[in-house]
Amino acid sequence: MTTIDLAAAPARRRLGMEHVRRAFGWLGPVLALAALIGLWELAVVVFDVKEYVLPPPSAVASEIVAQFSTLMADTWVTLTEILLGLALTVVVAIPLAVAIVYSSFLRNVFYPLLVASQAIPRVAIAPLMVLWFGFGILPKVLIAFSIAFFPLVVATVVGLQSVDRDTMYLIRSMRATSLQSFLKVRLPTALPNIFGGLKVAVALAVIGAIVGEFVGSESGLGYLVLQGQGTLNTPLIFASVTLMAVLGIILFYIVEIVERITIHWYFAARAAAQEGGSHEG
Amino acid sequence: MSMAESSAPATVQDRPDPPAHLALRDVTKTYKSRRGTVDAVAGASFQIARGEFVSVVGPSGCGKSTLLTMVAGLVQASSGDIEIDGEPVDGAHPRLGVVFQRDALLEWRTVLRNVMLQSEVRGLNGDKHRARAAELLRLAGLEGFDDRYPYELSGGMRQRVSICRALLHEPELLLMDEPFGALDALTRERMSADLLEIHQSSGVSVLFITHSIPEAVLLSDRVVVMTSRPGRIAEIIDIDLPRPRTPALESAPEFAGHVAHVRELFVREGVLTR
Ligand SMILES: Nc1ncnc2c1ncn2[C@@H]1O[C@H](COP(=O)(O)OP(=O)(O)OP(=O)(O)O)[C@@H](O)[C@H]1O
Ligand SMILES: [Mg+2]
Predict the structure, then answer these.
(1) What is the pLDDT at residue B13?
(2) Same-domain status, A59 and A181
(3) Pick the residue with more confidence: B183 or A59?
(4) Nearest alpha carbon to residue A234 among A72, A15, A63
(5) Residue nearest atom 24 in ligand 1 by C-alpha distance
(6) Residue range A252-272, pLDDT digits in tens
(7) Which of A168, B6, B82, B241 could form a disulfide with B89 if both were Cys (CB 3.0 to 4.6 A apart)?
């Protein structure tokens, strides 16, 4: 009896640690970030760095508070560009990937061209977009789209092609139409890859929208960065960059949450497999 | 071909016996790839009458799965004829149920919805088949697992779900590719007993593939013995043990005789050693 209790105790304690880790998992990164910011503040004061070179975090924070309404308006502009760029990316990339998987012509002729087109630095053609479409929102949306869409096409193509042979046989043994086998087998099989591609697309769409703003714009966070540069208002640059990062992180996590809900079976199966693996060692 | 038949009136002669439920004549399959060709199946011929249970036994890689996918209309034979009810197989036959070597469950569907895939895809009545699916799952010992996902099940449970799925639309011909291959001996015996019962009560014809000689003898009316490279049929053995059968039959001396016979064939073909 006592031996059993002794053996069970460490296991129970480990379980307790697991709970603590799960509940306060975010605490570590947050504390590390706070420490870094504190160090930055300290360094600026200690080495007496000029504000236009490197403002202390406190100056950035007070800039965000002082310029709050402008910053929010410009954040909204950039967010709109990113979301429209992403929407266009999803609406074009996924159907295109489906077409590539189903048409040997597209796969053999168009897909290689698409891959080759990635050699063109999209940032370099951004000025062309402004030339064609002006200073409004459209060129930013198009630049965001042009950078973000390729990874999503590739991820979706790979996902749609990853159905294993027995599953394909199964659905055919039920005399499924091609539409049925697409909706009931291919598309769900591809979802983990599609979400992976989507997360890359989100990060790239943020970059695309800001590059678009750099090249020619009258508003947006990228525009504010240029303004800050022109007026030596470095705190404004840092404030804008901070908001860009916040925007990127929030969008990424929204996709992640939708992913967790939509393909919960994928994560659960993976976790189960990993658990099996950890017992091997 | 008997004397009586040849002297029968023309009208009777014009009406031949009902065709076998499944008939294979000189079926071959050659896979071609960049690295050369593989003769997976060479000249396979046998028939399954309605309600008959026929097993195919043979060593790994002798073409058993290839044979089954050809019968299922999923892979085209290189030559020869495959007929179901006298009609050449062209795509999956409507009254076919298939159990695959790996369970082929869809990870994103619950147990019940995995079984229901069969009726959904075939456009069969949803309510009626949902009730039937629940009943099949209950008989398979999976009551209360309707809403679980495949990753929550053991290998044996997963395979039972896939068998329920294959039975949902009341198939007339059931093709099973080593359905018990991944199971432990106890589960295997229980599922053999269940399969015997299903076969007995529904009258479904079964083409059953296995590695196990005793399993083939226990379940089948006939055992097709295959040998490898190229996969060809060494012999077809009638198993005249009475039905209904139960796994208890395995201790009967006649049973041992049949098992020894099949073993002997494999020894002669160099698959097994004495
Ligand atoms: N799609 C394919 N392309 C090329 N060769 C194949 C293909 N499928 C099977 N083969 C070959 O055909 C032979 C028979 O394969 P098959 O899967 O039918 O064997 P099996 O009897 O079912 O084996 P097991 O008992 O291990 O499942 C093997 O040599 C295999 O390598
Ligand atoms: Mg096989």
Answers:
(1) 52
(2) yes
(3) A59
(4) A63
(5) B60
(6) 999 999 999 999 999 998 888
(7) B82
Residue of B nearest to A191 (CA): B108
Is the pLDDT score of A169 beyond 60?
A: yes
Percent of chain B with pLDDT over 90: 71
CATH number of the domain residue A151 falls in? 1.10.3720.10
Residues A58 and A110 in one domain: yes
Same domain flag for A87 and A34 = no
User: Which residue stretches of B76-154 are H helix?
Assistant: 111-122, 126-139
Cis check for the bond before B253: say yes or no (omega within 30 of 0): no
Strands B205-210 vs B53-57: parallel, antiparallel or unpaired: parallel
Percent of chain A at pLDDT exceeding 70: 90
Q: What ipTM score was computed for the predicted complex, to two decimals?
A: 0.89
**Alpha-carbon dihedral angle through residues A140, A143, A145, A147, given to the nearest 10 degrees:** -140
| pTM (global) more than 0.90 | no
**Preceding omega of B244 cis (within 30 degrees of 0):** yes
Interaxial angle between packed helices A68-102 and A57-66, expressed in degrees from 0 to 180 and rounded to the nearest 10: 90
Higher pLDDT, B103 or A8: B103
Task: Answer whether B187 contacts ligand 1 (Cβ < 6 A).
Answer: no
Asked whether residue A64 falls in the same domain as residue A181, the answer is yes
**Sign of CA pseudo-dihedral A24, A29, A30, A36:** positive
Going from the Cα of B194 to the center of ligand 1, the distance in angstroms, rounded, reads 29
Domain that holds residue A267: 54-280
Strand partners of residue B48: B22
Closest ligand 1 atom to the C-alpha of B101?
27
Give, using CA atoms, the residue closest to atom 11 of ligand 1.
B40
Ligand nearest to the backbone CA of B59? 1
- For residues A33 and A67, state if they share a domain: no
CA gap B119, B165 in Å, rounded: 9
Cβ pair B72:A169 closer than 8 A: yes
Q: What's the whole-number mean pLDDT along residues A237-256?
A: 96
- In chain A, the number of structural domains is 2
Residue A9 has pLDDT above 60, yes or no: no
Residues in chain A: 281
- pLDDT band per the 50, 70, 90 thresholds, residue B1: very low
Q: How far apart are CA B274 and CA B264, in angstroms?
A: 8
Q: Is B156 in the pocket of ligand 1 (CB under 6 A)?
A: no
- Does B17 have pLDDT greater than 70? no
Give me the helices (H) in chain B, please.
3-6, 10-13, 64-71, 111-122, 126-139, 155-167, 185-202, 213-219, 253-268
pLDDT-based confidence at residue B3 (cuts at 50, 70, 90):
very low
Q: Specify the 3-state DSSP secondary structure of B149.
A: coil
The DSSP 8-state label assigned to residue B141 in this structure reads T
> Which of A11, A27, A48 is the last residue before a domain boundary?
A48
Are residues A248 and A155 located together in one domain of the fold? yes
Structure tokens at A30: 């947050």
Instruction: Give yes or no: residues A213 and A242 share one domain.
Output: yes
Going by pLDDT thresholds of 50, 70 and 90, the confidence category of residue A13 is low
A32 with A139, same domain: the answer is no
